[in-house]
Amino acid sequence: MTTNAAMQGKAMSVEEEKIQGGVQSLEVGLTVLDALTAHNAPMMLKELSEVLSMHPAKVHRYVVSLIRKDYAQQLTDGRYSLGERAHAFGVNALKRTDMLELSQRYIQDIQQSLNCSIHVSKWFADGAVVVQSLESNHVFNIITRVGSRMPLLKSATGRLHACYQPEHIIKPLLEKEWESSAKPEQYPANWEDFLELKAKILSQGYASVTGDMMAGINAISIPVFNFTQQLDHVITCIGTEDQLPEGQMQQAIDYVLGVQRQIDALFRPAAAI
């Protein structure tokens, strides 16, 4: 029994050493893959060799193995780039990314820079619902409760969300609002007005209202997209005429659009240019 126990203990020690020691050839292969990933463009073998400070023949052996497993590929001009399986890793990682969590730093920056109330909303089955709310430091605060459903016609939040929904989904919802809250001065007052407003909002990249929902209350909404460029959530800045003056709205709009580009650049580097 003692001998068996000793042998088992020795076997476990050997296994632990193997685990701790790792597989050096695998580590080298992953280093080659890291180099291809970091370069962000196809590379010639000589270039890859120089980056890795490794003999070209040795690099080539690892690249061949990566190609066999579809983690790398050789292009027609002889350069090497990432293969489909490597791209799949990236896509899977992006799918697990919580865009709202990723946006938190930027949401805090907007709140502190403009000192306005902020709410964040997402689209659910039949409307735009507030999922996060931050108060300003002003004595008078506009508080939007988490769980509130925003009007599609009168709020900047609702208008922006409406512009990114399929027309067969959004049209019945808008018609319901028109029926329940029709006013002579209301804009958009009908489907044609909405399509006109939609084209403007999509072109400028934001939605804004100045007293449309509540007299003396102004708001700006910007979209945040996921890695497939689908709308994930909307960030809205809300303030009184003192906090967010109509005459200075363009300055605030330019600022929040700059922040939106920073968020977008996390997935599309060219968007930051």
UniProtKB/TrEMBL annotation:
<keyword id="KW-0805">Transcription regulation</keyword>
<dbReference type="InterPro" id="IPR014757">
    <property type="entry name" value="Tscrpt_reg_IclR_C"/>
</dbReference>
<dbReference type="Pfam" id="PF09339">
    <property type="entry name" value="HTH_IclR"/>
</dbReference>
<keyword id="KW-0804">Transcription</keyword>
<keyword id="KW-0238">DNA-binding</keyword>
<dbReference type="InterPro" id="IPR029016">
    <property type="entry name" value="GAF-like_dom_sf"/>
</dbReference>
<dbReference type="InterPro" id="IPR005471">
    <property type="entry name" value="Tscrpt_reg_IclR_N"/>
</dbReference>
<dbReference type="GO" id="GO:0045892">
    <property type="term" value="P:negative regulation of DNA-templated transcription"/>
</dbReference>
<feature type="domain" description="IclR-ED">
    <location>
        <begin position="85"/>
        <end position="273"/>
    </location>
</feature>
<dbReference type="InterPro" id="IPR036390">
    <property type="entry name" value="WH_DNA-bd_sf"/>
</dbReference>
<dbReference type="InterPro" id="IPR036388">
    <property type="entry name" value="WH-like_DNA-bd_sf"/>
</dbReference>
<dbReference type="GO" id="GO:0003677">
    <property type="term" value="F:DNA binding"/>
</dbReference>
<feature type="domain" description="HTH iclR-type">
    <location>
        <begin position="23"/>
        <end position="84"/>
    </location>
</feature>
<protein>
    <submittedName>
        <fullName>IclR family transcriptional regulator</fullName>
    </submittedName>
</protein>
<dbReference type="Pfam" id="PF01614">
    <property type="entry name" value="IclR_C"/>
</dbReference>
<dbReference type="InterPro" id="IPR050707">
    <property type="entry name" value="HTH_MetabolicPath_Reg"/>
</dbReference>
<dbReference type="GO" id="GO:0003700">
    <property type="term" value="F:DNA-binding transcription factor activity"/>
</dbReference>
